[in-house]
Amino acid sequence: MGCRKRAAKHQLLRVTAIEGVCVPDPRGALPGRGAHLHLDPTCLDLAVRRRAFPRAFRLQGSLDTERLREYVEERAGGTPAS
Fold first, then answer.
1. Taking the model in full, what pTM does it have?
2. Which one, 26, 69, 78, 81, has the greatest CB density within 10 A?
3. What gap in Å lies between CA 34 and CA 36, rounded to an integer?
4. Using CB atoms within 10 A of its CB, is residue 56 exposed (0-12), middle (13-18) or buried (19+)?
5. Between 80 and 66, where is the model more confident?
6. pLDDT at 43 over 80
């Protein structure tokens, strides 16, 4: 999504929006529209900067991505930003 590079579905993290919050959905079981993202903080930063999440979920306004950022940084081996 953020970097616009193609990858196999199993290499990407499914993300969904619940009550204005972008939530990671690694099992792909949450309801609603989903977007896919590499488990890379750089890819997440690009998606946020391009406002890709509201477009992907067809929502107005901005979405809270803090929970998603923590998840991606934890899985990518980095430390969560304070």
1. 0.84
2. 69
3. 7
4. buried
5. 66
6. yes
